[in-house]
Amino acid sequence: MPRDSSAPDTRARPGAARGTAATTGPAGTKNRRVPVSLPAMESAAGGFLRGMRFSGFSLLMLVIIVLFVVVLAPSLKTLIQQQEQISQLKRSVAAQEADVDSLKDDVARWNDPAYIEAQARDRLLYVYPGEYSYLVMNPTKSTSKATTKAGSPITRDIQNPNVDWVSGMLSSVYDAGLTTKPAPDLVAPDITGTK
Q: How confident is the model at residue 16 (pLDDT cuts 50, 70, 90)?
């Protein structure tokens, strides 16, 4: 059947866009209708995320990085703890080495016969045969009576001074604060109890 050239062609052509229809315009020219969609208003983040394309390689690398962090995080914590323990042990070893050095010095001193002799004389009161050792039992005791600067006697007995120390302290504070005399002319209150 021959085809009429005046009838519009409604068959789909391979290059034609779907959903379009060809119409005949004035003077026999064909016009094509193309559907147009207006862009919707979207946020900047939405446009950025929509523009990102994840390939299989980038997704694989992201999974490897996350797995790397999950696997190594406990190991790094253990490593840091072990490094801290090592530094504490090094400090402990250094302190013990210092103790060993001081003990070696003590041993070297005790290997010296003069040091041993001095220690025997001082600590154990040893003397050589023919020598005499005198031990003074009470070196501060003397035959004369000792007195203080004020002239009161020094005794081993407990003394009860007849001085009101509170009023003595207050009078000293008042004298120091309210006097016009120079410091060498001021007299300290008597706290000996002899008055």
A: very low
Is the Cβ–Cβ distance between 163 and 194 less than 8 Å? no
What is the pTM for the complete model shown?
0.33
State the Cα torsion 78-80-86-91 to the nearest 10°.
Answer: -140
Chain segment 113-124, per-residue pLDDT in tens? 999 999 998 888
Task: Check if the beta carbon of residue 23 is closer than 8 Å to that of residue 33.
Answer: yes
Secondary structure of the chain in HEC code, one letter for each residue: CCCCCCCCCCCCCCCCCCCCCEEECHHHCEEECCCCCCCCCCCHHHHHHHHCCCCHHHHHHHHHHHHHHHHHHHHHHHHHHHHHHHHHHHHHHHHHHHHHHHHHHHHHHHCCHHHHHHHHHHHCCCCCCCCCCCCCCCCCCCCCCCECCCCCECCCCCCCCCCCHHHHHHHHHHHHHHCCCCHHHCCCCCCCCCC
pLDDT > 60? residue 15: no
